[in-house]
Amino acid sequence: GGFGHIASLGLTDWINNQSGANSVVDTGSNAYKGGEVAAVVNGLFLGGARSFSAGAKTVFWSGYSGGALTEATAYATSIGGRTLEQTAGGKFLVWLGNKGITVSPVVWDTASSIFARNAKGVATVFLRNPRADSTWFRIEEKILNQRGIITVPK
To answer: CA triplet 79, 105, 152: central angle to 5 degrees?
Structure first.
């Protein structure tokens, strides 16, 4: 089912296609989708806090409507770094949202906290008219300052 598809990185799907078994697999069923979610959660737990890490090439952003996410993602990609959304854990949270599963703001805040705690060296920050109550001001900036991480605005 869905767990095997994700855990085997698609190998079981290929085998099922070759054998014809996929003709009886309902990939749209709740059970199949639940298996996919379980496999990704399993992978995140095995990865722990590292699932939300970019190390020395951490890129933060705030101000979605100002285009900060787009700019930060392009920059992170160009330097071999990551935004939170580009980490394994962040990709999972985005995937859940794309599947129509509401991800609580508390979950995103926790992920942002872990992401900031995993930053090393110098962090790059894209701020584009961020809200005063944004995750950047409430959580990430405070953690980086406490840890002595230098932030470079872009």
So the answer is: 30
Q: Three-class SS of residue 81?
A: coil
27-36, 51-60, 72-81, 96-105 — most confident range: 72-81
Report which DSSP code applies to 82.
Answer: B
Buried b (16+ CB within 10 A) or exposed e, 27-58: eeeeeebebbbebbeeebeeeeeebbbbeebb
- Select from 40, 41, 19, 38 the least CA-distant residue to 30: 38
Q: pLDDT by residue (tens digit) across 42-58?
A: 655 555 556 777 778 99
For the chain, helix (H) and strand (E) counts, in that order, are 8, 3
Structure tokens at 85: 């959304």
Q: For residue 124, is pLDDT > 90?
A: yes
Q: How far apart are the C-alpha atoms of 153 and 123, rounded to whole Å?
A: 9
